[in-house]
Design a protein that fits this description.
Number of helices of chain A: 5
Number of strands of chain B: 6
Protein name (chain B): XRE family transcriptional regulator
Order of helices and strands of chain A: EHEHEHEHEH
Helix content of chain A: 40-55%
Helix content of chain B: 40-55%
Strand content of chain B: 5-15%
CATH topology of one domain in chain B: Beta-Lactamase
CATH class of chain A: Alpha Beta
InterPro entries (chain B): Cro/C1-type_HTH, Lambda_DNA-bd_dom_sf, ScfR_C, TransReg_Diox_bact_type
Pfam families (chain B): HTH_3 (PF01381), ScfRs (PF09856)
CATH class of one domain in chain B: Alpha Beta
GO molecular function (chain B): DNA binding; DNA-binding transcription factor activity
Radius of gyration of chain B: 29 Å
Oligomer: heterodimer
Strand content of chain A: 15-25%
Largest sheet of chain A: 5 strands, parallel
Keywords (chain B): DNA-binding, Transcription, Transcription regulation
Shape of chain A: globular
Number of domains of chain A: 1
CATH topology of chain A: Rossmann fold
Structural class of chain B: alpha+beta
Chain lengths: 126, 435
């Protein structure tokens, strides 16, 4: 099982906290704050899991997710989406776009850690 | 107001219901029309034989004239019956009901008004929650900052041994985020307080402009007289609090002034009275285009037209740029309107005027004639696509004016539209979700 996580989040302090948390748990974490070139960054970094904020400057997390799912080899890439919008239709849209897990802000650290561990464990079994 | 002061109003109402002219009623009871006029305007007290005679001619008990239920109560009962759409409601006996059971009539009218008020509140709040970009951005800011604080605080609280460098950094982040949360929470509360406190829910520039135009009844006598100073009008408008709103208002008033020059009030009003509300004939008579005529009709003072008119203008993206509300036709405050509106159909066929009879399902089904046309806004240019705008004049269809044709059902916006079998639906309705 790979241990490389790419965190795409424009809130610097959220990114720093998650990065610290996952690094302590043994993950290699890269961060990126802009939506406009996020798809290219994912393709270049080849992470084992992406944590993706829904509202990003340049391009929305939902659009990024749709583009990623359309790329060969990235259909099954685990994507954990973070959002401040918890409405059911946002969740439905994310599920239709192929999200692996949907998490609303504010979340607890243990929720993030558990989600990352679960998603990568599932990915390693398939 | 003393009870006997209302007797005249009741006599006037009963006479109108019976379809009697003032002179006829006066003649039948042996008084002059001018004296009856004074009675009907509650300027003469009445009693004794004259009251009995009037009641007899009007076909009611004298007590119905002196002690009858308030006109507002009866009117409220009729309104409740009409909007309930229940065919068996005995609307012709509303006055009798109000007279015999005034307490229950009050309860019914109060309940109806309360329902109407709550429906409006639901509509406004759901519209705002769904589409208000300022509210969405504000909530996002609060929740994102709360997420950062929660994560950082957890790390500080739950991590046993934390290097001093990291600890200091997280303390600093916590300090920054808590200040940010305080500011964003305060801004959110202020925004909600402002919009709750003001009945017109202003805030966005378009809303301020809408409130400004509504406060003037969409009519500016100074501009009609060619003497208006746009800057002075705008500067004295309490509704226009933001620079963006003032800019939008200035553009609208500049267009208004130009329309006045092309279609001066007196000859335009005369033409409307002489030819009826025929926009094509008016456009020809004043050598202007249809959008100008639509705008001008919407700025006419009360009394020129038989009733109110609504007006909506959008750009090619469908964004509403201008709204003049009309009773019974829901215009969404934020975001997308119903794509079935002729306003949007016109964008598919620029410069082709279209006229559609539509019905909108609100508290009651109301029918409207919608006249729309899309036109290229701004000067033409080579290698440049024209920028289209569309305008729609909304005219109410009065009872009995329909030509029997089935009107096109339309909505206001999907979130508060109850129609379930609509191909144009973008998102579920809160009404069908049982919200």
């Amino acid at each position: 099982m790979g241990r490389h996580v790419l965190l795409i989040e424009d809130e610097a302090n959220i990114a720093e906290a998650i990065r610290f948390l996952l690094t302590r748990d043994g993950w290699q974490v890269d961060t990126h704050a802009d939506g406009s070139d996020a798809v290219e960054v994912v393709c270049a970094a080849k992470p084992d899991l992406v944590i993706l904020d829904m509202m990003l400057p340049g391009k929305s997390g939902m659009d990024i997710l749709r583009e990623l799912r359309a790329i060969d080899g990235l259909h099954d890439l685990p994507v954990l989406m973070l959002t401040a919008r918890g409405q059911s239709r946002d969740r439905d849209m994310a599920e239709k776009a192929g999200v692996s897990r949907f998490m609303t802000k504010p979340f607890s650290n243990i929720e993030v850690l558990t989600a990352v561990r679960d998603l990568l464990a599932q990915a390693s079994r398939t | 107001m003393p009870r006997d002061m209302l007797t005249g109003s009741r006599i006037r109402e009963r006479r109108a219901i019976k379809g009697l002219r003032q002179a006829d009623l006066a003649r039948q009871v042996g008084i002059s029309p001018s004296y009856l006029n004074l009675i009907e305007h509650n300027r003469r007290r009445i009693g004794g034989k004259l009251l009995v005679d009037l009641a007899e001619v009007l076909g009611v008990e004298p007590s119905m004239l002196t002690e009858g239920a308030e006109a507002a109560l009866i009117s409220g009962l009729r309104e409740a019956a009409a909007e309930a759409g229940v065919a068996m409601a005995e609307t012709d006996r509303a006055e009798e009901f109000a007279g015999r059971f005034p307490g229950w009539a009050e309860v019914l009218v109060w309940s109806h008004r309360r329902i109407t008020s709550l429906e409006r509140t639901v509509e406004t709040l759901s519209d705002r929650l769904t589409h208000d970009p300022r509210l969405a951005a504000s909530l996002h800011e609060v929740l994102s900052t709360a997420a950062a604080i929660r994560s950082t605080a957890s790390i500080l609280a739950e991590t046993g041994e934390l290097e001093p460098e990291w600890r200091d950094r997280f303390h600093r982040n916590l300090n920054e985020d808590s200040a940010r949360l305080a500011d964003s929470s305060k801004a959110l509360v202020n925004y909600l307080d402002d919009t709750e406190a003001s009945a017109d829910h202003r805030g966005a520039p378009q809303e301020e402009v809408e409130a400004f135009m509504a406060a003037h009844g969409h009519h500016f006598p100074l501009l009609e007289a060619g003497a208006g100073d746009l800057d002075a009008i705008i500067a004295s408008a309490p509704e226009l609090t933001g620079r963006a709103a003032r800019q939008v208002a200035r553009k609208i008033l500049r267009q208004y002034a130009a329309d006045v020059v092309a279609m001066p009030l007196a000859p335009f009003s005369e033409a409307v009275k002489a030819q009826g509300l025929d926009p094509l004939a008016l456009a020809q008579a004043f050598a202007v285009d249809l959008p100008a005529v639509f705008r001008r009709i919407a700025t006419l003072p009360e009394g020129v037209l038989p009733g109110e008119v609504g007006l909506v203008i959008c750009d090619a993206s469908g964004s509403i740029l201008f709204r003049k509300a009309i009773t019974g036709f829901a215009l969404p405050r934020h975001g997308e309107a119903c794509p079935l509106w002729p306003l949007f159909s016109a964008l598919n066929r620029p410069l082709v005027p279209i006229r559609r009879r539509v019905s909108q399902l609100g508290r009651a089904v109301a029918e409207f004639d919608c006249l729309a046309i899309a036109w290229p806004d701004g000067p033409p240019g080579f290698e440049r696509d024209p920028l289209y705008r569309s305008i729609m004049l909304i005219l109410p269809v009065r009872h009995g004016e329909g030509d029997g044709a089935t009107p096109q059902p339309v909505g206001g916006t999907c979130r508060v539209c109850p129609r379930s079998d609509c191909d144009a639906r973008r998102e579920p309705s809160i009404l069908s979700e049982g919200f």
